[in-house]
Amino acid sequence: MYDTPFSNRFLVIFLAILAAIGVFGGRAHAAPSSDRITVSVSGKGPDVVLIPGLASSGAVWDATVKQLSATHRVHVVQVAGFAGAPVAGNAQGPVVEPVVEAVDAYIKANHLKAPAVIGHSMGGFTGLELAEHHPEDVGRLLIVDSLPFFSAAMSSSVTAESAKPRAAALRDAVLAMDEAAFQDQQASAVLPGMVKSAEGLKAVIAWSKTSDRGAVARAMYDLMTTDARAGLAGIKTPTTLLYPFDPAIGAPVAMVDGIYAKAYADLPGVKLKRIDDSRHFIMFDQPKAFAEAVDAFLKD
């Protein structure tokens, strides 16, 4: 049923519980426009919105904030229930679509004029949904290792509807695990597959203990059952995709290139850039290459 060897990598992404409390010393916090997210702001200049991934802390962007805040006003999103943040509006029901709408509301309430949006994993999917459904919100979009339909990486024939049983089973399995066994699985099996950097791995293991597991499991379900591919052809937002390659995943580079190229084939003008010797957390595994890619994206 799940017919690509690359699929295991995306199962790892779905099962990862990465979070930790972000530390935003010296940054102002914007007035919340939703109980789904909070946002911290630093710097002055053109607006850039940074959205972290599934269960991640906004602290995943700390190096990027340092890089950009001298020349840009940087807005770091924290999803409620992830990274030790109070679960608030994400305590039940869908997570991803309400977060998309919350980011839209934040951009409009704060009168941001077509900001650059950079999103990792679930954050990249959030940016893609903004570009599709709220194009006025996004001046340009940088997607960091995300797909318009996550389940398609596991089966070429899967649909949003047919993915539901598998997604529900994974959600329920995450919720049912004993806490000690769950954390051991994250530290020994899941998280090492997502980050090569020793310091990065240490950080994400520490983060993994503070997410609300229910919010993460439901967000995982949302990602696996939401297919944004039909709307790609209508997106006018200039978009760049960064994706990693690590030979240890067991798939040849041509297969990895092909998966991302096929996934985004209908998105007009999309630029695809592979970052080698990296796993899912490119900003940790290849910080110099990541910073250069962010600079190039903003200068295009």
Report on this model:
By secondary structure, this protein is α/β, with parallel strands linked by helices. Helix content is 39%, strand content 14%. It contains eleven helices and eight strands. It has helices at residues 7-15, 62-68, 96-109, 122-133, 164-176, 179-190, 198-207, 213-224, 253-263, 282-285, 287-299, and strands at 28-29, 37-42, 47-51, 73-79, 116-120, 140-144, 239-245, 271-276. Helix 9 links the parallel strand 7 and strand 8 (271-276). It is globular, with a radius of gyration of 17 Å. The termini are far apart. The model is unreliable at 1-27 (pLDDT under 50).
Detail the topology: elements first, then pairings:
Elements: H1 7-15, E1 28-29, E2 37-42, E3 47-51, H2 62-68, E4 73-79, H3 96-109, E5 116-120, H4 122-133, E6 140-144, H5 164-176, H6 179-190, H7 198-207, H8 213-224, E7 239-245, H9 253-263, E8 271-276, H10 282-285, H11 287-299
Parallel strand pairs: 3-4, 3-5, 5-6, 6-7, 7-8
Antiparallel strand pairs: 1-2, 2-4
Helix pairs in contact: 3-4, 5-8
- How helix-rich are the residues, as a percent range? 25-40%
- Structural class of the secondary elements? alpha/beta
Q: Rough shape? A: globular
| Quaternary assembly | single chain
Low-confidence stretches: 1-27
Tally of helical segments: 11
Cα(first) to Cα(last) distance is 41 Å
Q: Tell me about the largest β-sheet.
A: 8 strands, mixed
Rg (CA only): 17 Å
Mean pLDDT: 89
Number of E-type strands: 8
Instruction: Report the portion of residues in β strands.
Output: 5-15%
Pattern of helices and strands: HEEEHEHEHEHHHHEHEHH
